[in-house]
Specification:
With 273 residues, the protein is of the alpha/beta class. Helix content is 41%, strand content 24%. Strand 9 (236-241) and strand 10 form a beta hairpin.
Length: 273
């Protein structure tokens, strides 16, 4: 655990000298009279992981989908530091620009792996499609990189031609991660990445994610209801209730010394289990 603490302290130190990768300003989404999320503001720095937690209906998934461009917010800005043009508000981007961003510098890991995979295409084909979307056309190179990434997510290369429907739930989720990370994105959105998996499978997946985040220097936003997930992966933590951010701070500080009554309730409910 000491290594985890040192890694997080180094990440925090870096944020003092670099500009944010993502700047979120006053994001709001409503469904008629009901608030999806409102008044959300934060910065995310290169190599930093932020966890977003809250009960079902708290607004965390609505927020993630607004930030990832899957939902159009009613107000606010999502400013991403692009490679070519510097900080750009992705809310006002054209749809083709946003699609290209989602194929290159952004990635989205769904809770249900099948939502992020093409089940009619082989495992290698799923990874290869993302490479082809950014211009790679050499079949040998694509297959080689697909096999390499299967190995990195602990799937045997002998399964490269198998379809995802032949995989277990945990393997499907690891394949989805490979498909997303093969193009070297700078920001990954994760929606309940361990949801619905057995406890032993969750532990293996979390260990894999932690290693890849460190190895690739990824920035990530992770939505989850599982505080153990953010304890392991996140540098900072945001707690949401009824569409509002009620507490935010360094993960260890928020979980070990929660200030808001709702955060205290979340933490205590885990401790009582």
């Amino acid at each position: 655990m000491r290594a985890d603490k040192d890694f997080r302290e180094n990440t925090r130190a870096r944020t003092e000298t670099v500009k944010p990768l993502l700047q979120v300003r006053e994001i709001e989404k409503r469904y008629g009279a009901r608030i999806g999320c409102t008044g959300v503001n934060f910065d995310l720095y290169p190599g930093e992981v932020m966890g977003i937690v809250g009960e079902s209906g708290s607004g965390k998934s609505t927020l993630l989908n607004c930030l990832a461009g899957h939902l159009e917010p009613d107000a606010g800005q999502v400013i991403f530091d692009t490679r070519a043009d510097g900080p750009v508000d992705t809310v006002t981007m054209s749809e083709p620009e946003r699609r290209m961003l989602s194929r290159t510098d952004w990635a989205f890991v769904h809770q249900h792996a099948r939502d992020g995979l093409r089940t009619s295409v082989s495992a290698g084909g799923n990874i290869g499609e993302r490479l082809m979307a950014v211009g790679d056309r050499h079949y040998g190179n694509i297959r080689e990189r697909a096999i390499d990434w299967l190995g990195r997510v602990e799937i045997s290369e002998t399964r490269v031609d198998d379809r995802p429907t032949a995989f277990s739930g945990g393997m499907q989720q690891r394949l989805q991660i490979a498909r997303n990370l093969v193009t070297g994105p700078r920001l990954v959105f994760m929606d309940e990445p361990t949801g619905g998996l057995d406890v032993s499978v969750q532990a293996r997946l979390l260990d894999l994610l932690r290693g890849l985040v460190r190895e690739m220097g990824l920035s990530a936003l992770i939505v989850t209801h599982d505080l153990a997930v953010v304890r392991l992966l996140a540098d900072r933590l945001m707690v949401m209730k009824d569409g509002h951010v009620v507490e935010t701070g360094l993960t260890d500080q928020v979980l070990d010394d929660p200030q808001h009554a709702y955060t205290q309730l979340l933490v205590s409910s885990v401790l009582q289990v």
